[in-house]
Amino acid sequence: MKKSFQIGGAFVGLVTGAGFASGQEIMQYFTSFGVMGIVGGLVATIVFAFLGMILAQLGSDLQTTSHKEGIYYIGGRFLGPVLDMFITAILFGVAVVMFAGAGATFYQTFGIEPVIGNIVMVIATILTLLLDVKNILKVVAMLTPYLMGIIFVVLLYSFFTMDYSIGELDVLAREQPAAASSWWMGAILYVSYNIAAGAAMLIVMGGTEKDRKIAGRGGILGGVMLGILIVLINLSLFAKMDVVAGVDMPTLELAKQIHPAVGICMALVLLGMMYNTAVGMFYVFTVRFISPDKPMFKPTIVLVGFIGFAASTAGFTTLVGKLYSTMGYLGFILVIAIMLAWARNEDRRKRH
């Protein structure tokens, strides 16, 4: 069971980036549909658990050591390279959203212009990759439990200080910008782009376990834990819709409402998670094209950093709504390919 929890925990860590923790993703894909957004969270939980199980089992069956093996197995000789490039593009997209998220956090917490926050995060990411400062990332990775603790405090605060009826909150929620046309599409899109971003690593994690049942159980556990977090954050935002309507960082706004010190703690944890995600995504994106030991690696990091900064000026809320939803629609291809590969694999196992 310990190994299953490790796989499940790693799956949660992959998905709960800064967009998730800030509440902006949950707002656009779930809360903006009012009461039905809660149903959407339950649907997302089931789909996350099912796809998590499939990916972890595939990794276990194939005993994969790199994400490329798994993706080429899923897509085959023709679709494999296309899926590989799509996932690579998503890595860049997620890093850009982290840059924009830093700008939104700086503005909402300290009143500093968003572009300054974008620049600070881009420079920190570039310097980390140029200087190979890996110890910082290990420290930042330990922030996740603190974030979850703050989110739980925010949830309690939201429920005990709710000022409006459920009907009034439902009306307010439905006035917020949504990333999809309906609650069920929002749920499916949310799962789709997150699976597209996390599929590669989940396959590799599954490959570390020879027992496919243990691996599959880890995928299911990860999906269920993610679902619980989605529902909790969604309920927190819904209960205080009058406070979080229209803000870039909803959970940060709620933390500030409790006490300015709680808001600053939340901002620092969010910035740490954005930094962690940005460095990881940027590194994997760059090494896909050029090896770290090549002379052109460092100049490429700087160049890609400047391109990422330019893209991040579109704004955090806009990027979460437009970029992530586009990635979600494209991710449907990957989700279908994953399910077909799993069906093929199950058929092959039965025949042997």
Automatic annotation (TrEMBL):
Transmembrane segments: 33-58, 78-100, 106-131, 143-162, 182-206, 218-238, 258-285, 297-317, 323-343
Keywords: Membrane, Transmembrane, Transmembrane helix
Keyword Aminoacyl-tRNA synthetase among UniProt keywords: no
The keyword Transmembrane is annotated on this UniProt entry: yes
Database matches in Gene3D superfamilies: Amino acid/polyamine transporter I
Superkingdom in the source lineage: Bacteria
Name of the protein in its database record: Membrane protein
Organism: Lysinibacillus odysseyi 34hs-1 = NBRC 100172
